[in-house]
Every structure is written in C-alpha cells, then in structure tokens.
Amino acid sequence: MSATTFAQHLLTGISLGGAYALIAIGYTMVYGILRLINFAHGDIFMISGYFMIFAMASFPWFIAIPVALIGTVILGVVIEKAAYKPLRSAPRMSIMISAIGVSYLLENLATYLFTAIPKAYPEIPFLKKILTFGGITTSLVTLLTPVLTVVLVVLLMQLINHTKIGMAMRAVSKDTEASRLMGIKVDNTISMTFIIGCLLAGIGAILYFTDRMTVYPYSGSLPGLKCFVAAVLGGIGSIPGAVIGGFIIGICETFLVAFGYSTFSDAFTFLLLIIILLVRPTGLFGEAATDKV
Amino acid sequence: MNKKTRNTILNILLVALVVGLLCFFQSDTSSHSYAISIIERSVIYAVVAVAMNLLNGFTGLFSLGQAGFMAIGAYVTAILTIPVEMRDSVYYMNGIAGWLHDLHAPMVVALLIGGLFAAAAAALIGIPILRLKSDYLAIATLGFAEIIRALLAAPMMDQITNGSYGLNNIPGFKNIFQPVALAVICIGIMVLLINSSFGRAFKAIREDDIAAEAMGINLFHHKELSFVISSFFTGIAGGMLAIYMRSIDTKTFQVMLTYNILLIVVLGGIGSVTGSVIGSFLINGGQEWLRFLDDDTFKIMGVHIPLFRPGFRMVVYSVLLMVVVLFWRRGIMGNNEFSWDGLFGLFKRKKKKVSAGGES
C-alpha cells in the first residue's frame, strides 16, 4: 500500500470516526446518567437523516439544517418523556426492553412511512466540493467532519465542566437521589442530556449521510451499535473516551474494508467490544465504579 | 367432583382437542395449508421463546443472542438434510467441500446435531461473557450473534454455507405432527428442568445472585448451564425453522428476529412458560390475521382507510410492544403458569367483582 493510498484511507477513516464519535457521545451521556443503553439512539440518527431529506426539499440548506436538528431534538425528548420516564423506578431489564421497543418502533415506522427503498440524501453543495492536494482527492465533508467533531467536543466539555447545567449533569450521573435532595431538577437534567445527545447525533447524521448518499430504515441500527461499542471502548460516561473510541473504530473499519475483509468489519467491532469488556471493563478512560453489595 | 379429577378431565379434553384439530388439518393439507403453516411457525417460535425465557425470565441473564444460535442450528440442520443428489445444484456457484458432500442425516438426528453445535458455541462464548452484568451481557450476546452471522456469510465458508446464496431444497416437514411433537418434547424437557433443583437454583440467581452464591450455588456453573441448555433448544428451533422455511440465508437471522422473539416473551410474561407459548401463537396468528393492515385496498364498511398500507402491521406490533412494556409490564401471564384452577379462579373473581359492583 503506497503512502498516498494509506493517507487516503486514513482520511476516510478519520472522517467516519468523527461521525461515530458524535453519535457515541449521545450513548455515553445517556448511559452515564440513566445507566441505560439507549438502543433507539441509532434510529434517532436514522430518522434525522429523513428529516434532512424533507427539510432540504422545501428549504435552502442553511434553513434546512437547523430545522432537521430541531426535529431530531424534539424526537429525542419525546422518546425520553414517553418511553423512559415512566420506567424510572422499574427494573433495569424493563427499561432496556423499552429502549429496544422504541428502536423497533422507529425502524418499522420509517419502513411504513418512507418504504424500505433507500432514499437519496440531498447534496449540500459546498460540502461536496472536491479538493485535491498531494495526490489525495477528498471532498470537503471528509475534512470538515473531524474538525467539527473536535470543536463540538471542546464546546461540550466547557459546557459540562463550567456551567450550572453541566454541574447538574455530573451530579445526577454520580448519584441521582442525592442530587435530587440538593435541589437539582433531575428530570430537566435528563432531558437536557437527551437534547445534547440528539443534537450531536443530528450533526453526525448530516456528516455521515452526506458521505453515504442514501438513507434507509435500517441505516441507523448497525452504526448505532458500533457507536455504543465506541463509547464502551473509550470508557462509558467519559466524553473524550467516546470520541477516541469513535475514531479508533472508524479507522479500523476503513482499513479492514481497504484490505478486503469487508464481511468482517462489523464482526470486528463486536470482537473489540468483547475483548475490551474482558480485559478492561472500564474502557480506556472510564472510572472504575465500585459495585456496592 | 373434586378439583383434581376435574383438572385431569380438562387436561385430557384439551389434549384430545389439540390432537383432533391437528388430525383435522392433516386430513386435508391442501385446503388448510394456511392454518398448518401458522401452527408450525407458532410452535417453532414457542420453542425459542421458552428457551429465551429460561435464560431471561428464570435465570435473569438478559441475552440477545438468539438469532445467532438459531442460525447455527439452522445451517447445520440444512447442510445435513439437503438430499445428496440435490447438493451440486444447491452449491452450483462455489461447489461443496468434499468431506461434506455425502454427509447426510435424518431430520431428527440433524436437529440434534444442530442443537449440539449451538450448545457448543454457547459453552465457548459463555466462559468469557457470562461474567458480564445485565446490559453489557445483552450487548455482548447481540455482538456474538452478529459475529456468527458474519462468519456464516464469510467467503472462506462458501463451500460449507454457500455464502450469500443461502441454502435451499431443504426437505420440509412430512406432516404437522412432526413439528408439534418436537416442540412439545423440547418445551417439556425445559419445563422439567425448570421444576428441578437446577431450575430452583436458576430462580435463586435471578432473585439475588449474591444471596444465591452465599447459599452455595455455584454462580458460573449454573449460569453456563442455563446458557448452554437455552442455546441448545434455540439451535434446535433454528433447525426447525430451516425445515419449515425450506430455504435460508444469513439475512433471515438478523437482530430483528431476536426482537420478534423478545416481543413474544414480553407479551407472554417474563418468567412464564405457558405465557411464552400463548404469546407465540398470538403473535404468529396475529401476523396472519392482521394482514389486512398491510392491504391498501381494504375497506371497513365501505370506507377506505388511508392508514392501511404495507408496513402498517409492523408499526401496530411495535406500538403493542411499547404498550405492554409501559403499561402492562406483567404481560399476559406475569410469572405465573397457566392452570385450570387459575382460570376458574379468574372467572369467580370477575363474577364477584360484578356482583359487588351491582350492590354498591
């Protein structure tokens, strides 16, 4: 493999990883606060792709993007209020089944409303601009994705570490009951977590689908699971961890495909998950939580 | 007449009714082919649902790997039962591995071998991942199901699994009694297991694993046992599904299949064997009876309903799952088993309620 091809694949991998990282943050934040694998997160990401298609059909891109993002956020909050909030005190298994149920519902609803045939994703003209330098050809979106990811993560870290709502989030994820006693509005904090997670998933969807060019009802399920793996890999609950996990998985996947093992690229992700869970269950950056008996 | 004789008589009547119904369907297979296919499908799903319940409901291990173990069972059964003379035409693209070409087994033996393969895979997988807790276990088993599917579809396995072309020409069931009898035997064995000392140990682990360990139950040993046995029967059910469908490929065994089975288990009640069986018949029967939901030309009393078009049935199903999870967490049976006493008790209670309601 020549240096140029290597650089080309590396760039594609980093770009894919950036989109994964944005989705993985949603998983890691929700898991950190609710101890729930939000199986529906990947499907929210998929629906966001459809929102963008319809928004682009009637608005220019600079209005369509906020419209699609707001739609995604509303969807996420509605799901949280309708499907997860009533089960706060229920056993963990029930709330997980509820999450699976939402995922099942969104996939079937998308099949029903938009048919199973892949829909073409609208092109945002300037994102698709082709750039060439030093033998590497790439589109602007590929370069923009990792940069945007890093910028958003830095902003998010500021939000979490230096604002009141961020402090509330950290408190709730440490101990829900104690933070309720301290006067933190737990439900609002959880909604805020979903808002941020869905917003990032929406941005991730724009970047991911602009590269992929089609959306279909199941296009969210596998990336969703992979991003969860990315979150576990980085250490669940840790935002920088999720980002690095996303990049690792994106790059590994691209290179597996490049070397001709595309059938194994999905299997590899899960193998990575299992190895991580066995060797270092807290992930790369996770804090070890002591299990109280 | 005391309760015991009444229950025996009712049991005999129920069995006679079921056998009579099956004989009735069998007597004229061509005109009842629809009902037969629903029943076959239901009993196969019932076996998987009970196997999943053994793990999720009775041992408290939330596993989502069913589709993978079904795939193993299905492929092993299919490879062993495809008639030898048909094999060259089934594997026309890649050819079949030499050692496999003349390997043939009768249906029941093939199913057993399929189950054993699934159990062996579960035993291997179980050693590392049964240490994980609740949701991590779920995602790890889900991951393994995907890995199994990827392996079955891998180009290196082309001469064995026929890669992405799938396998066809699998001989079907000869009559309706075969799948029903197999399912009854499988579920019967699982019920015996649940009522044995092992079953009590499983339930103890479900309730509180630390207390169970303190009582001298070897946690890992019992979790592994439950996982292996559940996978064994899941594998057998996968084999039955292959025989029922007569052609399979790896797309049959996607995560969606696991979710469908989860729907059956949740609807029937987590921790109830009879609930799972009832759930399976309701879901599979419903899948056919509700087919009008997918029909965009269907009219209710002459009124055309614009909602009805392909895909609507699955939406109704998923809404149903959500409603059950949110408002009716016990499902149909909760964690009780069906019994005649319970059924009559239900009627009596209803009557009492009605009369009490009348007085007030």
Task: Give a description of the structure.
Chain A: It is a multi-pass membrane protein. The complex is a heterodimer of chains A (293) and B (360). Chain A has 11 helices and 4 strands. Chain A is mostly helical and 293 residues long. Chain A has a domain at 18-217. In chain A, strands 1-4 form a two-stranded antiparallel ribbon. In chain A, strands 2-3 form a two-stranded antiparallel ribbon. The longest helix of chain A is centred in the first third of the chain and has 32 residues, at 3-34. The radius of gyration of chain A is 19 Å and the shape is globular. Chain A starts with a helix and ends in a 14-residue tail after the last helix. The model of chain A has no long low-confidence stretch (mean pLDDT 86). Chain B has a domain at 34-254. Chain B is built from 16 helices and 2 strands. Chain B has helices spanning 3-27, 33-58, 66-81, 87-90, 98-101, 107-129, 134-153, 158-161, 177-195, 197-207, 209-214, 219-245, 255-268, 273-289, 312-327, 340-359, and strands at 299-300, 303-304. In chain B, strands 1-2 form a two-stranded antiparallel ribbon. Chain B is globular and about 75 Å long.
SSE inventory with pairings:
The complex is a heterodimer of chains A (293) and B (360).
Chain A: H1 3-34, H2 41-58, H3 61-84, H4 92-114, E1 119-120, E2 130-133, E3 136-139, H5 140-162, H6 164-174, H7 176-181, H8 186-212, E4 214-215, H9 221-234, H10 239-258, H11 265-279
Antiparallel strand pairs in A: 1-4, 2-3
Chain B: H1 3-27, H2 33-58, H3 66-81, H4 87-90, H5 98-101, H6 107-129, H7 134-153, H8 158-161, H9 177-195, H10 197-207, H11 209-214, H12 219-245, H13 255-268, H14 273-289, E1 299-300, E2 303-304, H15 312-327, H16 340-359
Antiparallel strand pairs in B: 1-2
